[in-house]
Amino acid sequence: QVQLVESGGDYVQPGGSLRLSCGASGFTFSRYGVKWFRQAPGKERELVAGISFSGGTSTYGDSVKGRFTISRDNTKNTAYLQMNDLQPEDTAVYYCNAAGIWGQGTQVTVSS
Question: Cα dihedral angle (104, 60, 9, 99), rounded to 10 degrees?
Fold first, then answer.
């Protein structure tokens, strides 16, 4: 089955950290770049970060630069999003995307 499955979302306090995972199956993960998006209630989906198929190149949205790090392990068919210094404005459902496939999303809530 061709799919992406996100995990790792949680409820954290401001300043906290989380690591999201995006597991791929049913396609050759290592051939595709991966992007993380997020969508907060009432807002448009926003590109958070992207990484090339090899992992050699990554890009970030301005709002997360210096706080988030995208990575991947092609031996595990998994991409990651390390999120540090989380703030309430980071609250959203986070989605990964690769090869035209979307995951179901994982909820991140940042609140004191």
Answer: 20
Alpha helices in 1-112 (DSSP H): none
pLDDT digits (tens, 9 = 90+) for 60-83: 999 999 999 999 999 999 999 999
Q: Which residues contact 2 (CB under 8 A, 6 or more apart)?
A: 25, 26, 27, 99, 101
Q: In this structure, are residues 91 and 110 in contact, taking their beta carbons and an 8 Å threshold?
A: yes
Alpha carbon distance 103, 82 (integer Å): 17
Q: What percent of the chain has pLDDT over 70?
A: 100
Q: Which two tokens stand for residue 97?
A: 């995307």
